[in-house]
Amino acid sequence: MNPTTRRLVPALLGFAFVVSFLQAAVAQSDPLPSWNEGATKKSITDFVARVTTPGGADFVPPAERIATFDNDGTLWCEQPVYFQVAFAFDRLKAVAEQKPELRSRQPFKAALDKDMQALAASGEKGLLQILAATHTGMTVEEFHKTVLDWTASARHPRFNRPYTELVYQPMLELLAYMRANGFKTFIVSGGGIEFMRPWAGKVYGIPPEQVVGSSGVTTFEAGPDGKPVLMKLAKVEFVDDGPGKPVGINRFIGRRPVFAFGNSDGDRQMLEWTAAGAGARFMGIVHHTDAEREYAYDRKSRIGRLDKALDEGTKRGWTFADMKRDWKKVFSFQ
Questions:
Q1: What pLDDT, in 10s, does the model give residues 10-35?
Q2: Cα(108)–Cα(134) distance, rounded to whole angstroms?
Q3: Domain for residue 176, yes or no?
Q4: Which of 17, 97, 118, 218 makes a 20 to 30 Å CA pair with 173?
Q5: Is 119 contained in some domain?
Q6: What is the DSSP letter of 107?
């Protein structure tokens, strides 16, 4: 090694260390590391910067920074069936042990026999009967325990992992990023409110009081030991889907969102209502385009159909998070 080279080696090593340090610093400063660089990620970070800069034309006071997120297909996977439906089918087996007469009655027989054709023929009415049989006749606390036991033991048929691991890593980062910038994050879902509340805090960092969902009637009464309980009845109180989402937001949150994310036609009215507010607004849609890492579907899907919202979002310039293009990973385990 000649003297010139000998002098260059420490300098080169020092330069490499500085480059490595800067790369690590950049990685740590990136609030959305699972999002690919591009227009979608930039639209999110630019919006947040605009509405959180004091004195800016689009500044939004912290009290008004409301961000709403659909759950199924937006925060976690929803294929091949909504996870709450998978829970109901698994729960039905236990119910049938206590009520064997259900095994010979439709739509319960179809669900227990996994006869999808007969189950489909029962339609929405049949599904509601199954939900009633598996979600009611117990206290709220008993139902919460049942849900937590299921999430601890049940496995997704394709990925063979707990359903609560089938959450989207990029969206977890987005939730944390919004909260770090003074936003209050809410789930606004067509799923059952009592189904989501037991695990949403641990999985999403969203407390139960910030979960808005479909709900059944509960009554306040004395339990077997004389202590008061809330009993779940087989009667629908509120459906938080489609046009019900803006109604639910107004009823339970009391403020119009400035930031909303969905993935299907069931979220269209929530996005429309968000867009109709004054000032800066962000409307986002998760577009399922990755059959290899998750699923690819939109207009023709029976689960999470994205058709009218796809057209309207394209027309109005809403932001589409293309799963295949915009996400480095879909799930944390990938």
A1: 444 444 444 343 343 344 589 999 99
A2: 11
A3: yes
A4: 17
A5: yes
A6: T
Q: Is residue 122 part of a domain?
A: yes
pLDDT tens string 99-143: 999 999 999 998 898 888 888 888 878 888 999 999 999 999 999
The domain that holds 165 is classified in CATH as 3.40.50.1000
- List beta partners, residue 235: none
C-alpha distances in Å from residue 19, one per residue of 13, 14, 23: 10, 9, 6
User: Helix or strand or coil: residue 142?
Assistant: helix
Residue 139 φ/ψ, nearest 5 degrees = -75, 165
Q: Is residue 168 part of a domain?
A: yes
Do both 41 and 130 map to the same domain? no
Q: Are residues 187 and 206 in the same domain?
A: yes
Taking the alpha carbons at both ends of the chain, their separation in whole angstroms is 45
Please give the DSSP secondary-structure letter assigned to residue 33.
Answer: T
Phi, psi (deg, nearest 5) at residue 160? 55, 45
Radius of gyration of the chain (CA): 24
71 and 218 part of one domain: yes
Q: Using a cut of 0.85, tell me whether the model's pTM lies above it.
A: yes
Task: Label each residue of 208-269 as H, E or C.
Answer: HHHEEEEEEEEEEEECCCCCEEEEEEEEEEECCCCCHHHHHHHHHCCCCCCEEEECCHHHHH
Domain of residue 138, residue span: 84-142
Is 200 in the same domain as 254? yes
For residue 189, which of 284, 303, 76, 70 has the smallest C-alpha distance? Answer: 70
Residue pair 269/246 in contact (Cβ under 8 Å)? The answer is yes
Q: b/e map of 302-311 (b: 16 or more CB within 10 Å)? A: eebbbeebbe
